[in-house]
Amino acid sequence: MCTAITYKTKNFYFGRTLDLEYSYSEEVVIMPKNFPFSLRHTTTDKRRYAIIGTAFVPDTLPLYYDAANEAGLSMAGLNFPENAKYNKVIKSKINIAQFELIPFILGNCSDTDEAVKLISKINITDTSYSSELPLADLHWIIADKNKCVTLECVEDGVKIYDNAAGVLTNNPPFDIQTFNLNNYINLSPEQPENTFSSKLELKNYTKGLGAVGLPGDLSSQSRFVRAVFTKLNSVSGKSEEQSVNQFFHILGSVSQTRGCNRLDGNKYEITVYTSCCNASDGIYYYTTYGNHRINSVDLRKVNLKSDGLYRYPHIDKESINKQN
Amino acid sequence: MCTAITYKTKNFYFGRTLDLEYSYSEEVVIMPKNFPFSLRHTTTDKRRYAIIGTAFVPDTLPLYYDAANEAGLSMAGLNFPENAKYNKVIKSKINIAQFELIPFILGNCSDTDEAVKLISKINITDTSYSSELPLADLHWIIADKNKCVTLECVEDGVKIYDNAAGVLTNNPPFDIQTFNLNNYINLSPEQPENTFSSKLELKNYTKGLGAVGLPGDLSSQSRFVRAVFTKLNSVSGKSEEQSVNQFFHILGSVSQTRGCNRLDGNKYEITVYTSCCNASDGIYYYTTYGNHRINSVDLRKVNLKSDGLYRYPHIDKESINKQN
Amino acid sequence: MCTAITYKTKNFYFGRTLDLEYSYSEEVVIMPKNFPFSLRHTTTDKRRYAIIGTAFVPDTLPLYYDAANEAGLSMAGLNFPENAKYNKVIKSKINIAQFELIPFILGNCSDTDEAVKLISKINITDTSYSSELPLADLHWIIADKNKCVTLECVEDGVKIYDNAAGVLTNNPPFDIQTFNLNNYINLSPEQPENTFSSKLELKNYTKGLGAVGLPGDLSSQSRFVRAVFTKLNSVSGKSEEQSVNQFFHILGSVSQTRGCNRLDGNKYEITVYTSCCNASDGIYYYTTYGNHRINSVDLRKVNLKSDGLYRYPHIDKESINKQN
Amino acid sequence: MCTAITYKTKNFYFGRTLDLEYSYSEEVVIMPKNFPFSLRHTTTDKRRYAIIGTAFVPDTLPLYYDAANEAGLSMAGLNFPENAKYNKVIKSKINIAQFELIPFILGNCSDTDEAVKLISKINITDTSYSSELPLADLHWIIADKNKCVTLECVEDGVKIYDNAAGVLTNNPPFDIQTFNLNNYINLSPEQPENTFSSKLELKNYTKGLGAVGLPGDLSSQSRFVRAVFTKLNSVSGKSEEQSVNQFFHILGSVSQTRGCNRLDGNKYEITVYTSCCNASDGIYYYTTYGNHRINSVDLRKVNLKSDGLYRYPHIDKESINKQN
């Protein structure tokens, strides 16, 4: 499934893994603010912000998986199977199809608070993009450098949760995910003291014993705990290179290796790509399963007032540097 | 600490992570067979095989961390604190200092069986390289494309264990590591059936539930279990690129992120480098903590009969490919 | 804290542990239907059913911890700290103080469905019994031989959950407890096959490996999982002796030993008592921390139309049978 | 399988669970010192001490499962499948059949040190008691009030381990069991501080969170960890009643409920009996699966110089105390 995190050093970083058993043709897509993204049910004013992120472009419109805008607001949609419940179109409301949500929010909001306010005014609908692309069950992480929230449309209605850890995976709903962290209160990145019993000599026969109990499997709840632990205990320098480097290390801790997560029909869920967007500066970095090297696309190198998309297909082939 | 694995597709691959809180100046070093590596306690015949691997070269001699030879035999030394016990020099025997073991074995043996035979004839000594480089507590993994063993010098003497999983980490001794795998007999990469109770409806609310219980921390026993599970369930193509790519994904599952393993004095153990040697063809690939891109050095591109070292310092700076 | 379970063989059994760091003077109390239990806020008709259970009787009224009535309906209140939210008295409603809930429901309902219906008509209030006995944060398990539910008064209102496992402990709220069971879908009471990897020989070196991963600590979520696993996989004969015997074994799996759960001020939470009520026949069995022998009180041996309580203080002293 | 523990308050206590899927007719058997227990391969002097314990008496000789002698030395044999390796009879040695070991050691030694010394002089043989009673794979715990050891006859020879925790279960060999405790160094009976991350608010939503990670299944390694944790953190008064009461609570934490450990052919391993011997005073207490009440037999109430056995069949029927 997937994992998204935020990270803040001097700049603000936002990214995710996309874990799937197949891959559409992912591309980094820059959508300038004048690109004609016509909404299905609603006529809106022009968008205020250009967007950069990974998208699938089935024909002319980009379907974003994760993106950031010029103002530094970021958003990603993650799988939320069976829990996501969208609404039918309601005539009196501003209806936004689920697949339009990322460009709609990022096109119009400068920060998380604005996004939350805008969400309270809209009706998120179950409109499919097309018959070939059925409705996806998703929930979202929305973040700027100061604030991170989780957006879930469930049976009970629209929920917006404060996301203090700055991490999102998949099921269960976010309140349960957050609660579950309490069960790991006793773990630590430090070398532990013996608290098991003072009557017994126990020893730190290896480094790392303080975190024994941290789950190592690929289920969404285990990835959530592991990503939160790894991110919150992470230590890095503040430079661009140090921050980006560390970001990919953090997401590496929840990356899925082919074969370890087997689905029916000999399919394997893998981490198709991993992204890290410097949302402050609009530089989008990514790696793919097939390519360990980091690639980047810079939002500010294109004409952000253009009306066409800028598309950079993901490079999925190892780029090995031969030293001799 | 560290993790080493073997991997076999069309060719045979061997590599490891080096997990430390500091870094010497690691280099890929090719040692041609005529390079004068004079042994401390023993006069030997010329070596039969050139070697490629990562080493630290304090002055003129390479101290190898992991290496492979022309014949496809591979070997790595991993931290084994407090358990490693070497011998004093015994005049009547062939004395090999611990730090000479990798070049001595790889210089003279064509496969694992030959290595095991040679080890039975030598006395592994506690000789330090120098006063600045004290004795390291190590154990070793030795492997060719057909067979893998673990070598441990402990209180009880020299132990050579069959290493069926082709994985080595650190403490505890290898027989305990291997035994411990039995406790995970019930884990699976597949979507599990409900065996908890037929009286209750449970569901696969996420992919990956079959492996819940797999440890996710960085202790040496947890890394051993996780690396064995990831490697043995791994699925990849057989081409060079597919094999190398998958190899780095497997070791990525036990990679250490800065901050998650804190030592005294605000030091952090990290995965300094990760290597993958195509031992069949003598191509040595590596990444470093600071550089996600794979670099490679090819044994066969140099004069293997030379008497000088070929040295390629590890490149530890992100090499980002800018797509625009 | 506490654990309650239901159990059905030929008859229907219901009971619980009471885990506390102190003990009031618990007694088995039979409350005949004509006993004058005047409600604080409401004038009601006479009760239809006599009740048997463990209660604390601070002056004249019994405060029941768990009980069953003549009709076989059973109910227990378990600690639910910080999550329980009761209402203020609302004049237009039937107000039932939290401490009156067990006698009110069991006095008037013959089965779970009637109880659920009655609960929908009342307002459960935060009225304290007295200044010495402040409001307790509780949730309830209500069960007859056919149906079991969990009742929780939380921030969001009154929730009634189907309790398919027939088990209740404490925090978190019941929907989270139930969800969490999915994480154990892969556990089994059987000897497991090796699903870890077909490339490795693993063996059942001990019986019981199929349930490795079952939590063994005394937290409320771990006790819930362990009690559900133990109860649902339980096998016993159907006779009264066999059923009661097995019931105490099941609750024994979540019993708290003095010293393993330390609170501030050198206090220790222990399983003060364990009960098992044959709700079909009105026979109440219990053991205490201090007394492993089972004691019993029979509802039908007293005059159920009386207007006085029948009180049987818990016997908390080991009753050892000397065989010589 | 089984669990044995020692416990010391004012007196010294020793006992065990016997976990099996069947039951022979267990009895408490007192063997006075003059009872003619003729050894198979060896002629010895008279025994110095009378013995009390649970045994199976197939014809005239008691086969002890666990016992203590007049001097306060205690010993129990526990299942050790596939690891136990006994010797053939060697003419030059004092040959003691495995099934004679408990009466031989307890009949002749006054403390653990004497027992260890005597064991070093004997040859423990693989002699079967009879064709109906084949050789059992066992290892032993031997303890007096000052010292506890584990005795294992394995491939490598006879091993005697210091048993600092005073606990024995079954496989794996004792050095691995002991090593494994290090993995739980971070657990605690106390309410934990948040060491997961200072950047996140986590809370003790339940008592007992400090021991999350303690295994709860019935495998021998999990029972070992749980029994050690429970015993070493145990708190009780020092009186006879308080000590015996607490002892049964400790072993209750590793008791096996019917149905949770399923073997082939619809058999279930259960805790057939649980014993607690006050080895200081020679009072043997026990409960059975079928009887929660504690029964006792007093060594000093019989003639310890007699030449006949005193036999007290286990009482396996609930002895319920009716309070009305």
Structural summary, described in words:
- The structure is a homotetramer of 324-residue chains.
- In chain A, 15% of the residues lie in helices and 31% in strands.
- The radius of gyration of chain A is 20 Å and the shape is globular.
- In chain A, the strands form 4 sheets. The first copy, chain A, has an 8-stranded antiparallel sheet. In chain A, strands 12-1-2-15-16-17 form a 6-stranded antiparallel sheet, covered by helices on one side. In chain A, strands 7-8 form a two-stranded parallel sheet.
- Chain A has a single domain, classed as Penicillin V Acylase, Chain A.
- With 324 residues, the first copy, chain A, is of the alpha+beta class.
- The model of chain A has no long low-confidence stretch (mean pLDDT 96).
Order of helices and strands of chain A: EEEEEEEHHEEEEEHHHEEEEEEE
Largest protein-protein interface: A-B, 81 and 81 residues
| Arrangement of strands in the largest sheet of chain A | 11-10-9-6-5-4-3-18
Mean pLDDT of chain A: 96
Largest sheet of chain A: 8 strands, antiparallel
Q: What value does the Rg of chain A take, in angstroms? A: 20 Å
What shape does the CA trace of chain A take? globular
**What is the CATH architecture descriptor of chain A?**
4-Layer Sandwich
The parts of chain A where pLDDT drops under 50 for at least 5 residues are: none
Helices of chain A, by number, come to 5
| Percent range of helical residues of chain A | 10-25%
> What's the domain count of chain A?
1
Could you name the CATH topology of chain A? Penicillin V Acylase, Chain A
Oligomer kind: homotetramer
Strand content of chain A: 25-35%
The CATH superfamily title of chain A: Penicillin V Acylase, Chain A
The level 1 CATH classification of chain A is Alpha Beta
Secondary-structure content class of chain A: alpha+beta
The N- to C-terminal Cα distance of chain A equals 39 Å
What is the β-strand count of chain A? 19
